[in-house]
Amino acid sequence: MKVLPEDPVKRLSVKLAITSFGFLLFALFVMPPLYVAFCEITGLNGKTGDKYEAVDAVVDTSREIKVQFVATNNEGMPWQFGPEVKTLIVHPGEQTRINYLAKNPTGNDMIGQAIPSLIPYKAASYFHKTECFCFNQQALLAGEEAVLPMFFIIDQDLPEHIKSITLSYTIFDVTDRFSREELLSMVDTGQ
Amino acid sequence: MAHGPAKGITRWLYTTNHKDIGSMYLWFSFAMFFLGGIFALVIRAELFQPGLQIVDPNFFNQMTTMHGLVMVFGAVMPAFVGLANWMIPMQIGAPDMALPRMNNWSFWILPFAFAMLSSTLFMEGGAPNFGWTFYAPLSTTYAPPSVTFFIFAVHIMGASSIMGAINIIATIVNMRAPGMTYMKMPLFVWTWLITAFLLIAVMPVLAGVVTMMLMDIHFGTSFFDAAGGGDPVLFQHIFWFFGHPEVYIMILPAFGIVSAIIPTFARKPLFGYSSMVYATAAIAFLSFVVWAHHMFTVGLPIAGELFFMWATMLIAVPTGVKVFNWVATMFKGAMTFETPMLFSIAFVILFTIGGFSGLMLAIAPADFQYHDTYFVVAHFHYVLVPGAIFSITAGVYYWLPKWCGNMYNETMGKVHFWLAFIGLNVTFFPMHFSGLAGMPRRIPDYNMMFADWNMISSVGAFLFGAAQVMFLYNVIATIVGGKKATAEVWENPEGLEWTVPSPAPYHTFSEPPEFKSSH
Ligand code: HEM
Ligand SMILES: [Cu+2]
Questions:
Q1: Which one is catalytic: B15, B161, B195, B458?
Q2: How would you classify the pairing of strands A80-83 and A95-103?
Q3: Which chain B residues are Cβ-neighbours of A125 within 8 angstroms?
Q4: CATH for A46-189 (3.30.43.10, 3.40.190.10, 2.60.370.10, 3.40.50.720)
Q5: What is the model's pTM?
Q6: Which of B293, B379, B402, B442 is catalytic?
Q7: pLDDT over 90 (residue B300)
Q8: Domain limits of chain A?
Q9: ipTM metric
Q10: Would you say which domain of life the source belongs to (chain B) (predicted)?
């Protein structure tokens, strides 16, 4: 079966057109996932991983890691949002809980989404979350407030030179992206 | 045999003749050059003094954005495609481009793209105001509604460039005169061949990135939106994966033009032809692995900073080879200084200055200071104005007599050169200083301490603009009349284009010519 035309000019042109279309597909469908995968493996953009299944591990009491918690509101997000405590000292291997507090002071029901970022980047892949409010959106009815827990374990393999980690959450207003029903079902399931 | 062009407007609408299409591209580019120039003068008028006097800040941002977009995509790129249309078939002894109908298409969609882009100036919310680099989320979450028109305009420009590039490659690969092997092709043809491959690789990436913006804005995806799990830094990676090769798209054909002109007026063959070819290919190849030198401050890991720093510096090596070869060509040559040669010599000197400031910017730790200051503006204007624009101007003066059969006014050409040369240096040299002193780019108002440099820059800009009006006048006067040019035009220029009469007949090389190489 002949797919490409016989005429050399047409043949070459078709090949070039296919190549350029290939680069379009590459940009649309390869570059973004490649970037995400690259960042996930290296922790480069400070994103922390998805839910982690805790494994039995010894707590390394010889090391103390200072973990600082930061919160930021994205532009236009009216919620009051912040960690219960600003700093914790933890040992690698130890499961720890930290609460963030959120309050929707407005007269509207809203949905927020917290996006984590962690420095130093090198620590991102050693910071495991077994449970986190950031895995889901949070719905808060007008005036409602909530305690948002997060459980984490710092890996025993955390490089020796890292003594302190800063975890930052930025809360975004994503109300527009969901319907009223979705909002209410989020409230029901207590997410 | 040869019949002339059709009459009236349909000649231009339906033409498939490479010379007609080349002329249309060049006129279009000239028009965009003036439009982009007006935008630049609005910017410089506002910056003449500190404080806000002429335009409001949002309009100022629209001007910097539109100036960049119009100059890059409307002036520089179409001018090179126009020169390619005119000169590649004539330099390789082909009767026309390989795909003449597509050629017509790739030109005629351009005016629509730019009409659409320009119309955004009159829309509610104004034109795009997020810079020619249109970083997300400025260009997505915070963009004016006209961004959608901007996106479609970029799609059309991309389609035009890709079609043009396919045509150029198909022409060069298939239609060379017998005996013209690849290593005997004129350098303008070589540099365009390589440029066309760059276009085919990166224009789709540009189309891809604006498509992702479109999806984020209208279809609820989150490629670049952190709230939905995306990342604005991804935008910058994709943009600069296109953007850095793009800056070479705007300079490689320029290398080809000056490599044609300098030997003619130095009366010596080009020094180091094959090293020129290899250097061009090396630059093109390296241009794919340096993109993040535009992103040193986004928080790259140390390894990334170092890699992109060294890779960027590596590009200076083949670039240095080229500059060396041009200088060596002139060395002990019997030089004369006609207008095309003046522009070419200025190209070599001033482009080199731009290369050096590029090297300074490539030093990652230093770039933390220089980034987003006027130093960057000085750098890229030194590579683009005396680089791309001067080479195009040199090419126009060099080949205009061949196109229209008349000599241009040499005195006026020289005056144009000196005004442009002085104007450009007065405009852009002070920007090195204001930039090093910390003046940020893309702002309508600034600290008093930058006032002197800015006033000088603005004076230079108006001088440069005035010089271009003289250029326009000279070109029109040459087309209308003037001393008849000979077939050779210059003294013993090299290349097949000089073997046909001046003006070049509507159809040339209907029979493939005899090709004898001189090197
Ligand atoms: C020796 C060669 C070159 C080197 C080492 C170099 C290096 C750099 C670096 C490091 C930057 C980023 C600066 C920053 O944003 O902080 C930059 C910006 C830029 N360069 Fe070059 N460059 C070179 C040649 C060129 C050429 C030939 C062109 C175009 C013809 C060019 C056009 C640009 C443009 C347009 C920008 C600014 C883009 C923007 O942010 O708007 N450069 N260059
Ligand atoms: Cu670059």
A1: B161
A2: antiparallel
A3: none
A4: 2.60.370.10
A5: 0.89
A6: B293
A7: no
A8: 8-42, 46-189
A9: 0.90
A10: Bacteria
